[in-house]
Amino acid sequence: MSEAQWSPDAADQPVKKSIPKWVWFCGGGCLLAILAGIVVLALSVNYFKNAIDPAVSEPALQKVLPHDELPPSMTIQFYNSIGIEQFQIVDTRGFQLQIQVHKGADGGRAREQMFQKETPEFPKDLGVMKFEDMEKSAVDIQGRELPVIRMRMEFTGVMGKVMPEEAKSQMGSMLWTDLTPEGATNQLVLAQLMRMKGSGEITDDELRDLLAPFHIGPKR
To answer: Which of 56, 127, 171, 218 allows an S-S link to 50, with CB 3.0 to 4.6 Å?
Structure first.
């Protein structure tokens, strides 16, 4: 390692107070790491601020899934714009609706495997949860026939042990449907609906009611 060359009076020269002395002794690499950390922190704060800001999430959802004004019972709780675009919508009537946007070849392949085959190609056991009683059907929503997959979710492994029994009993019934715009290719707009209160499968009428604000088919 080469020896640093210091001028004779370097120690006598005051260091600017705007930059801490220890930053300079770290060297350039450490300084860059500090700057990168500041940038990541700023981006994280900005990300979470946008994720819960209706002024950001509402136009984004409108672009993905055009809709009328959401009823008072429905609130966009969280919006993720990194990677797979996701919208978490909570309905005070006892439901949680998640909209996911899968783009590109992977999105097209996922749509085909899940909704365009007689038997959905989806792993039953994910380690921390598994899906039971999978049943595929179709539901007419606003004059458009949507493929629907109903199932019952069970927590297993560590999740099954730490999840309170009351919570497990209230988070069982799930429904997935394909909201991809008609004619779109290499894309999947996946809606995951979960019953958060009560029991029993999500009915066709409940699905129609929850999707009523969204522009799904020609008969709105």
So the answer is: 56
Q: Which of 23-32, 99-108, 167-176 has the highest mean pLDDT?
A: 99-108
Task: Give the start-to-end residue ranges of the domains of the chain.
Answer: 21-49, 55-211
Return the C-alpha torsion angle 121, 122, 125, 128, nearest 10: 170
**Cβ–Cβ under 8 Å, residues 195 and 97:** no
- Residue 188: how many CA atoms within 13 Å on its side-chain side? 22
Residues in CB range of 139: below 8 A, 6 or more apart: 145, 146, 148, 177, 204, 207, 208
3-state secondary structure (DSSP) of residue 125: strand
The SS3 assignment for 170 reads helix
> In this model, does residue 190 exceed pLDDT 60?
yes
| Residues 172/152, Cβ–Cβ less than 8 Å | yes
Residue listed under structure tokens 């509402």: 58
